[in-house]
Structures are given as C-alpha cells and as structure tokens.
Design brief:
The structure is a single chain. Helices cover 23% and strands 31% of the residues. The protein is of the alpha+beta class and 154 residues long. β1 (22-32) and β2 form a beta hairpin. 8% of the residues are buried.
C-alpha cells in the first residue's frame, strides 16, 4: 500500500537534513503554469518605535496540479530549487476562496453603477480690464442720456 501524499510530506519534514520551513499565505496569482504566487504576512516589531507592523513576502510556489486559486489560504514548504525563482512547493489548500457572486452594492464594481455628478462648468470671469471698460462704458451711456434729457428740457 502506497503512503498518502500528506504522510510523505510529514516524513519529509522530519528528514535528517533538518526541518524544512513551512508557511501559510494567500494566493495572489495563478497566471503561470504549475506556479502560484503566495503572499506570506508576518508580524515584526519596529526597531525604533516598538510598534508591531506587518511585513510580507511573495513566494513563487510549485503547484503541480494547478489546484490553488487566487484568494485561497495555502500551506507551503521549502524545497530544492525548481526554477530560477521557485524554492517552495504547495502542501495543501487550507481554505478555499469564496466562490459566491459579489453583492450588487459591494466595492468590487459589480452591479449597477451610480451616476457621477457632473462638474458644473463655470464661465470664466471677465478680466479686470474688461470689467472696468464695461462699467465705464455703461456709466458714460448713463451720463449721456442724462445730458440729453436735461438738454432737451432747457
């Protein structure tokens, strides 16, 4: 009887070469063949401010069966170099991403879009020189009409 794949991996973890690193992270891409990109987040204390901050690394992981999808939580294990960038392999998918359709009011952009308010178009204000000449022209017209009316009556 052949041992299961998980039993083989557990035996590999206890190999005399030493324990291999095991990490959990979220799949952020599966665009390549037999390769996924996994983001592993760790918490570290800031050296100066002593505040706990999130640090993350993206690992290229060998996924022989192409079973992991973006958003899945996966467990990966360090292994021999498989390619230029791949030094990790997929052990298991811990939790699958939700495949439920997005709600209509979600931020993902699905559903109806609300119309955006159009920016009101403002007419350019007349420059100071134009405004001054308009005002002076109107005052001159008013003065002429006054003179004409006063001159006609005299």
């Amino acid at each position: 009887m052949k041992p299961t794949k998980q039993a083989e991996m557990a035996a590999t973890l206890l190999h005399p070469r030493g324990a291999r690193k095991v990490r959990e992270g979220l799949v952020i891409s599966n665009k390549m063949q037999k390769t996924i990109v996994v983001r592993v987040v760790r918490h570290a204390q800031h050296s100066t401010y002593s505040r706990v901050i999130n640090r993350s690394n993206a690992f290229k992981v060998h996924d022989e069966t192409n079973q992991a999808k973006p958003g899945d939580l996966v467990r990966i294990m360090e292994t021999r170099p498989i390619s230029k960038d791949k030094r990790w392999r997929l052990i298991e998918v811990v939790r699958q991403a939700s495949t439920a359709p997005a709600l209509p009011d979600s931020e993902s952009g699905q559903g109806e879009k609300t119309p955006k308010k159009e920016a009101s178009v403002k007419k350019a204000a007349p420059s100071k020189t134009q405004a001054g000449t308009k005002a002076s022209a109107e005052s001159k017209k008013a003065a002429k009409s006054k003179e004409a009316s006063s001159g006609a009556g005299a």
